[in-house]
C-alpha cells in the first residue's frame, strides 16, 4: 500500500495575470474579449481573457487567427515591465506572510504550510492571505490547498476563476478520478492522444493500469503519469531564496582596451547563457555585469529588468551596463555576465514585440544549438570563431544567488 505524506501545500495562481493587470489599469476592459500581445497581423497572442477563450482563442495563437475567431476582440500591447514589477510586489507580500514558499513562475507560487493546522488552520490562513492579496493588489487570485504540489495545482485550476478549493488528505484519488486525462499537469495533446487510442480517457482508468504497462507504453513518462493519476507527488517546495543564477566569465590572455573585441565577448557570453536559460525553461529578472581592470580593481553593476529569456533583450541590457561600468578607459583583463532572479516560464511570454517569425527563429536557433553546440551559431557581426576565442573561466549552471 502506498502511503501519502501528510503535508499541506497551497498553490496560488494570479488568474489571467496579464489580462487582469490590463483590466485593473482600465476598468472598461472588464468582461470583454481581450487579447494581450503584438499589434501587427503577424504578432502572437501572449494572453487572452476568459471571454476571448470562449471563441477558441489561446495564448501563442497568431493574432491574425485570433481576430478571425473574434473580430470584435480588443487588443492591448502589453507591458512586461509593469507585469514584472507587480509580480515582485506579490512576491514580497507572500514572502512576508508565508513560512516557506516557491515562486514557480511570474504569476504562480507554492506555499508549504505543513504543521500550521496545529496553531492556526491552513485553510483559514490561506483564505486570509488570498483576501489580503486581492485587497492590496486589486487583482484576482485563485488557490488550491492539498497534500502535495500536483494536487494543489489541479485544485487551483478547478477553482478558477478567482476561487479557492481544498482537497482533504485522503481524498486525492477520488478528486482526480472523474477528470479527463488532460487535466493532469504535463499531459499534452500527444500523450492524451496516445492514451485515448488505448481507451484511457479518465484519470480513474489511468490509475488502474499497471505501472509496468504504462512504462512499456510511454517510457519513464509512464511511471510519472501513474504517480500523478494516483495522487502521488513528493516533490518539495523549493525556497525562493535558493533560486539559482547563471553566469559566465572570460579572462583574456592579454589585457585589452579593444572595444570591438569586448563587444564580441559580451555577445558571445550573453548568447551562451541565454541559451542555457531557455534550456532550463526559465526567465531572468536581473542582469549583472562584472569588469576587472588590469590593476585588478573589480567593479560590478546590476539592473532589474522585466522577466525575459530573449537574447536581443538581454544583450541590450548587458551592453548598457558595460558602458556604464567602463568609465576609466583602462586595460581590461576580465568580463563577467550573470542572470539572476530566475523564475520558471516560457520565454515567449516576453516577446510582445515579436512576430511569429521571431518566435520561430528562436526555436530554430535553439534547435541548431542543441544539435551542434551553442558556439556554432552566433551573431555574425560580433562573433569570434571558436578556435580564436580566449580561454574563459565558466561558472557552471546552476549556482546559488548570494
Overview of the molecule:
It is an enzyme of class 2 (transferase). It contains 14 helices and 14 strands. Strands 9, 10, 11, 12, 13 and 14 form a six-stranded antiparallel β-sheet that branches. Strands 5-6-1-7-8 form a five-stranded mixed β-sheet. Mean pLDDT is about 85; it is low at about 1-5, about 345-350 and about 380-400. The protein has three domains: about 5-170, Reverse transcriptase/Diguanylate cyclase domain (Alpha-Beta Plaits), CATH 3.30.70; about 170-235, DNA polymerase, domain 1 (Orthogonal Bundle), CATH 1.10.150; about 245-400, DNA polymerase, Y-family, little finger domain (Dna Ligase, domain 1), CATH 3.30.1490.100. It has helices spanning about 15-25, 50-55, 65-70, 80-95, 120-135, 150-160, 170-175, 190-195, 205-210, 210-220, 220-230, 260-280, 310-325, 355-370, and strands at about 10-15, 35, 45-50, 75, 100-105, 110, 140-145, 165, 245-255, 280-295, 300-310, 330-340, 345, 400. It is globular and about 70 Å long. The protein has about 400 residues and is of the alpha+beta class.
Features of this protein?
DNA polymerase, domain 1; five-stranded mixed beta sheet; globular; 402 residues; alpha+beta; single chain; Alpha-Beta Plaits; Dna Ligase, domain 1; disordered N terminus
How many domains? 3
Radius of gyration of CA atoms, rounded to a whole number:
24 Å
Oligomer: single chain
Give the N-to-C terminal Cα separation: 43 Å
Q: What is the fold named in CATH at topology level of the largest domain?
A: Alpha-Beta Plaits
Q: From the coordinates shown, what is the CATH architecture of the largest domain?
A: 2-Layer Sandwich
Number of beta strands:
14
Count every helix, treating DSSP H or I runs of 4 or more residues as helices.
14
CATH superfamily name of the largest domain? Reverse transcriptase/Diguanylate cyclase domain
Percent of residues in beta strands:
15-25%
On the 0-100 scale, what is the average pLDDT?
Answer: 86
Fraction of residues in helix: 25-40%
Sequence stretches where pLDDT stays below 50 over 5 or more residues: 1-5, 347-351, 381-402
Shape: globular
Provide the structure class: alpha+beta
Keywords: Cytoplasm, DNA damage, DNA repair, DNA replication, DNA-binding, DNA-directed DNA polymerase, Magnesium, Metal-binding, Mutator protein, Nucleotidyltransferase, Transferase
GO molecular function: damaged DNA binding; DNA-directed DNA polymerase activity; magnesium ion binding
Domain UmuC: 9-188
Site (Substrate discrimination): 18
